[in-house]
Amino acid sequence: MSSSNKILKRAFDVVVSFIGLLCTGWIIIITAILARMDTKLSGFFKQKRVGQHGAIFEVYKLRSMKHVEGVTTTVSTDNDPRITRLGRFWRKSKLDELPQLINVFMGDMSFVGPRPDVPGFADRLEGEDRILLTIKPGITGPASIYFKDEEALLAAQNNPERYNREVIWPKKVELNKAYINNYSIFKDIEYIFKTIF
Q1: Helix (H, G, I), strand (E, B), or coil: what is residue 22?
Q2: Domain span holding position 80
Q3: HSE-up of 80 (CA within 13 Å, CB side)?
Q4: Distance CA 17, CA 159 (A)
Q5: CA nearest 139: which of 2, 31, 13, 3?
Q6: What is the Cα–Cα distance from 131 to 167, expressed in whole angstroms?
Q7: Where is the Bacterial sugar transferase domain (predicted)?
Q8: Where are the beta strands (DSSP E) in the chain?
Q9: Which of 123, 115, 121, 141 is nearest to 59 (CA)?
């Protein structure tokens, strides 16, 4: 991705995330209060993710899971007992992603790009695959749209963590490399509209 494209992409992110926060800030506050009442924990969920150049940052989401003794898996599926009824609605409607507008505005993320993964995936990329670390991770992107039913897909597996590592993750890398190598701001806008509608 050229320097001019990176500048254009960042300018787009700043302007649109600012407008988005102005328009949806009240929704984020109300849903965070509801999430706190629902889970008995903080309404916002923060987790360390791998960002541009491998830097670690905290991603913000609405909390959709409660604490369940003995359940600690890092791969969440549709049948995860920790997901509350309201949390399922957050996830299905994608409202749980709204707080990531803060991440975009602050510069940790972009609207479009590879999804930010927990340490152990993106930070272990090798060779030409490390191109994924040259851009900011995104709220949505080609891999997010391709695997829009990822949780249901994982829930159908006997070993979801292994399936994620051996099948889903390599495909995401392939899709995201193609996105970066063929970048266009118009494609970004297309991915955003596909995600919303």
Answers
A1: helix
A2: 3-196
A3: 26
A4: 37
A5: 13
A6: 20
A7: 9-196
A8: 44-50, 56-62, 110-112, 138-140
A9: 115
User: How many domains, in total, are found in the chain?
Assistant: 1
Nearest to 195 by CA among 105, 78, 95: 95
Taking the C-alpha atoms of residue 146 and residue 20, their distance in angstroms, rounded to an integer, is 25
Residue 60 bridge partners (DSSP) = 46
Q: What is the residue type of 184?
A: S
Q: Are 110 and 134 in contact (CB under 8 A)?
A: no
- The phi and psi torsions of 159 (rounded to 5 degrees) equal -130, 85
State pLDDT tens for residues 119-157.
888 888 899 999 999 999 999 999 999 998 888 899 899
State phi, psi for 62 to the nearest 5 degrees.
-75, 140
Q: Are 114 and 143 in contact (CB under 8 A)?
A: yes
